[in-house]
Amino acid sequence: MGCFRVLLAIIFPPLAVIGRGCGSFIIVFLLTLCGWVPGVIAALIILNNPN
Predict the structure, then answer these.
(1) Which tens digits make up the pLDDT trace of 39-49?
(2) How far is CA 26 from CA 3, 16, 19, 20, in A?
(3) Angle subtended at Cα 29 by Cα 15 and Cα 2, rounded to the nearest 5 degrees
(4) Cα separation, 51 vs 39, whole angstroms
């Protein structure tokens, strides 16, 4: 998890996980629509997962 991805996850979470697949992008996008904090948390969790 690079510094650029972490900053991107904080600024705009869906864009940070776009390389992890369509499902991750949609989940993070919906959580970001519900609130910024849940989107950031989900993006950081997805980026921290090595799989």
Answers:
(1) 999 999 999 99
(2) 23, 12, 12, 11
(3) 35
(4) 19
